[in-house]
Design goal:
heterodimer, A: alpha/beta, Aconitase, domain 4, B: alpha/beta, Aconitase, domain 3
Chain lengths: 163, 419
């Protein structure tokens, strides 16, 4: 799967309260949650973000709560993928389970706000089109790629595929 | 090479002959928990999947506790989804307000989670049950929906980090201080994807309530789980429950990615400053930090021993002028015990609010939201920006003694100073 989009940068330890505040957890609708994505730390984010844009962040992205509303909000505001130095474990599996593509990369400091990047989930190649630079990171393990390609865990289970 | 306690529980539930860190495995779950925020999504995913019946109605637990008693119409509707699903599926472990509690205090209290179990919960603080010697880990709603279908989940076998605590704890220092100190030392991603195993003579002397506080916050260091090997205290705690536990212990030659060994004899009560649980300081190093609110309770510190400590400091005292003190016992049983022991009266006479069990204030849900510029000391587990309300508020995390003492003086205070 190849994804291309404009970059919005975030720091280390972006937590699930930052991504979607608890007061909005009275909905499970991705579009509605998306309107409040990152509101606590960047109140204008949901207006600034365009369809297909990519979030690029530091270490421990998505730390905190288990709320699946967090990756749903990210998907719901139009973001197509997240690249971070590392992801918190529950966010990691939630993103896979709902089919939100992401990559872990040590090279996120070489990507700037507003850059256009292209990522290939199968190979782990990140192409910074703005700066004409390429980085290689580890591709998803095949098992996880299969879940994402199925569009999430439930579809994967329905197809009878197992580890 | 031997196995850690976590690896032994995972191995047992995988049905495999062996497992190794980094490997993807599928495990059978003993308990699948969700609450009023996460269950609606799990239930809708389950229903969308086309499956009609859950794999085992006795292994599913539903607790409306976050926005319950329902804070508004939308939360009421979310809570109702749980009640309806429980009725439809014949799930007996559904806890309506009146017999409920904060999930992570309630499940151990009811004997729903036991040593040796593999528990998944759509709540990050599911790791609390690690204190019993169980593998308990937080997941998302879709993971729960999948478990509703076939009783399984996928896992990547994590490596373990061992923490050995030696020495003798000072008065007013307990499990909460040990875990805040630990997170301060290793950082909020210090145990990312890993299991924390808490051990050593200091842990052996801790009561179960303190152990639950420690395991509860393993997630704040990024850990998948936080385990404590069972001992006589564990056995006493679970005696009387019908279901049989399984006791697992780490092998002497088990592999740990890292081992930390600390003498905690000189440890003071710890406070985590805004806006990360890892911004930990000894309480005496915080000078003149004025508070507007003190919150005592939550899945971290809302158990009876926590309330007893708070009451011992609040007895005959008054909350400082302008400070709001909110005390919320974690379960109805604890609530009743606090009434019987006269703790509730002490809190009310001191000028505090004694609330029904709810997660409300901890996550900025209801029952004590912080306004712009307000400062709180809380015995909860997260102090992220805006966690308890306004993005312009500030949350300091502490043990119940520090929170109670601070409520009396109006400033973050060492408990010794009011005794």
């Amino acid at each position: 799967m190849i994804i291309k989009g404009k970059v919005h940068k975030f720091s280390d330890d972006i937590n699930t309260d930052d991504i979607i505040a608890a007061k909005y957890l009275v909905s499970t609708d991705a579009q509605e949650l998306g309107k409040h994505c990152m509101e606590t730390i960047n109140p204008t984010f949901s207006q600034a973000v365009g369809p297909g844009d990519i979030i690029v962040a530091g270490n421990n992205f998505g730390c905190g709560s288990s709320r699946e509303h967090a990756p749903l909000a990210i998907k719901g505001c139009g973001v197509s993928a997240v690249i971070a130095k590392s992801f918190a474990a529950i966010f990691f599996r939630n993103a896979i389970n709902i089919g939100l593509p992401f990559l872990e990369s040590a090279d996120v400091d070489k990507i700037n706000e507003g850059d256009v990047v292209e990522i290939d989930l199968a190979t782990g190649v990140i192409n910074n089109l703005t700066q004409s630079k390429q980085f290689k990171t580890q591709a998803f393990p095949e098992f996880l790629q299969q879940i994402v390609e199925c569009g999430g865990l439930i579809n994967y289970i329905k197809r009878g595929a197992h580890v | 090479m031997g196995y850690t306690i976590a690896e032994k529980i995972l191995l047992k539930h995988s049905g495999q002959k062996s497992i190794k860190p980094g490997e993807f495995i599928e495990v059978k779950v003993d308990v699948a928990l969700a609450n009023d925020i996460t269950a609606p999504l799990a239930i809708s995913e389950f229903k969308k999947s086309g499956f009609k019946k859950v794999f085992n109605k006795n292994k599913i637990v539903l607790v409306p506790d976050h926005f319950a008693p329902a804070k508004d119409l939308r939360s009421a509707n979310q809570c109702k989804i749980l009640a309806d699903f429980a009725k439809e599926q014949g799930i007996k472990n559904y806890f309506e307000i009146g017999c409920m509690g904060i999930e992570h205090a309630l499940l151990p209290e009811k004997g729903i989670v036991l040593p040796g179990d593999l528990i998944i919960g759509a709540d990050s603080h599911t790791c609390t049950y690690g204190a019993l010697g169980a593998y308990a880990t937080g997941m998302g709603s879709t993971d729960l929906a999948r478990a509703y279908i076939d009783g399984k989940c996928w896992l990547k076998v994590p490596t373990s980090i061992k923490f050995i605590y030696k020495g003798k704890l000072n008065k007013w220092v307990g499990g909460k201080d040990l875990i805040l100190y630990t997170i301060g030392q290793i950082g909020v991603d210090g145990a990312l994807y890993k299991v924390m195993e808490f051990s050593g003579p200091v842990i052996r002397k801790l009561g179960m309530d303190d152990r639950f506080s420690m395991s509860n916050m393993a997630i704040e260091a990024g850990a998948r789980a936080g385990l404590i090997e069972p001992d006589e205290k564990t056995k006493k705690y679970i005696s009387g429950f019908k279901r049989k536990p399984k006791f697992y212990y780490s092998d002497p030659d088990a592999h740990y990615e890292k081992i930390y060994e600390w003498d905690v004899t000189k440890l003071e009560p710890q406070v985590s400053c805004p806006h990360l649980p890892s911004n930990t300081q000894p309480v005496n190093s915080l000078k003149n930090i004025k508070i507007d609110q003190a919150v005592i309770g939550s899945c971290t510190n809302g158990r009876i021993s926590d309330l007893r400590i708070a009451a011992s400091l609040l007895k005959g005292k008054k909350v400082a002028k302008g400070v709001k003190l909110i005390i919320f016992p974690a379960t109805q049983k604890i609530y009743l015990q606090a009434v019987k022991e006269g703790l509730a009266e002490i809190f009310v006479r001191a000028g505090g609010v004694f609330s029904t069990p709810t997660c409300g204030p901890c996550l900025g849900g209801h029952m004590g939201i912080l306004a712009d510029g307000e400062v709180a000391i809380a015995t909860t587990n997260r102090n992220f920006l805006g966690r308890m309300g306004s993005p312009k508020s500030f949350v300091y995390l502490s043990n119940p003694a520090v929170a109670a003492a601070s409520a009396v003086t109006g400033r973050i205070t060492h408990p010794d100073k009011i005794r």
